[in-house]
Amino acid sequence: MPTTATAKSDRLQGKIAVVMGGGSSNPEGGLSNGQAVAIAFARAGATVVVVDIKREAAQVTVDIIEREGGIAFAMAADVSKAPDVENVIRTAVEKYGRIDILHNNVGIEYMGDVVDTPEADWDRVHDVNIKSVFLACKYAVPEMEKAGGGTIINISSTASLKFSDVPYIAYNSSKAALNHMTQIIARQYAPKQIRCNAILPGMMDTPHIRTLYKDLPADKFKEVMAGRDAKCPMGRQGTCWDVANAAVFLASEDASYINGVLLKVDGASSI
Ligand SMILES: NC(=O)c1ccc[n+]([C@@H]2O[C@H](COP(=O)([O-])OP(=O)(O)OC[C@H]3O[C@@H](n4cnc5c(N)ncnc54)[C@H](O)[C@@H]3O)[C@@H](O)[C@H]2O)c1
Asked: Virtual CA dihedral for 71, 152, 205, 270, nearest 10 degrees?
């Protein structure tokens, strides 16, 4: 049974959340992981600052949240650029007083192995996937310290753990670095009551994935998606709500002693 959408609750009531990459790279194709997380945080009672490289992409998510009666605010930022990230954190704190939850969702890929990946694409993937999280934490952690604690969730991937059929060397290594950075931050800032965990999605059926195959003829596209489902032991790919439900749990008090965890959300695909 596919996971259902996150229900309304008070699990994050009164919390202030920043979701980096809370828009979608394909707004026509259903909800992305980042959008679902922003919506799920709002449904659990959080006020959500939705950040995306395109303000319009963040605004789409904010409009959904507001239509449901939630509170959200859209900001544009390139998460790989220090001044943009500093501005997001400063604005969130000026507007709402503190940051309780930092959710780092942005991730890009370049298909290529160690020989054929151009240096510029290696650098771009690492800037967007790992330097971005370094920058977000650099500016958000001192604010969390001042507020007496907080929680950070980093979106990694099971591609950080093992070789996959398709060569994505820059992506794999950036996500593996993200796992380690997550655990180092968790260990160092535990005495400050700042928790840092990662979610490692497996194969997910998201608009971004559908975009990768959008130029295929319809029957071939169906075949590719069925092939992805068949590769998963549970007979289906994950959905954005599988990630969002895990994120709400990790952000909530239910996970108050869960720190430094690399939580696979992959239906046992990586075993
Ligand atoms: N879909 C899968 O199968 C799968 C599997 C494992 C992990 N993931 C991870 O999930 C995360 C993304 O999922 P998604 O569905 O939300 O993807 P997505 O690409 O639809 O959304 C990411 C958002 O980040 C934004 N973005 C891109 N570069 C940015 C930048 N430099 N600054 C600010 N915003 C930027 C995009 O505009 C987009 O709105 C990634 O970290 C990805 O690695 C996905």
From this structure: -160
DSSP state of 131: I
Ligand 1, atom nearest to 129 Cα:
41
Kindly report, residue by residue over 72-109, the tens digit of the pLDDT. 999 999 999 999 999 999 999 999 999 999 999 999 99
**Is the CB of 59 within 6 Å of ligand 1?**
no
| Mutational test site, ligand 1, from 18, 26, 32, max ligand atoms within 8 Å of CB | 32
- Domains (ranges, CATH) in the chain? 16-205+240-264 (3.40.50.720)
- What is the residue with the minimal CA distance to atom 31 of ligand 1? 78
Q: Rg for the chain (alpha carbons), in Å?
A: 18
Cα distances (angstroms) measured from residue 217 to each of 26, 213, 222, 224, 228: 19, 9, 9, 11, 17
Q: Are strands 47-52 and 71-76 parallel, antiparallel or unpaired?
A: parallel
Residue range 13-45, pLDDT digits in tens: 999 999 999 999 887 778 999 999 999 999 999
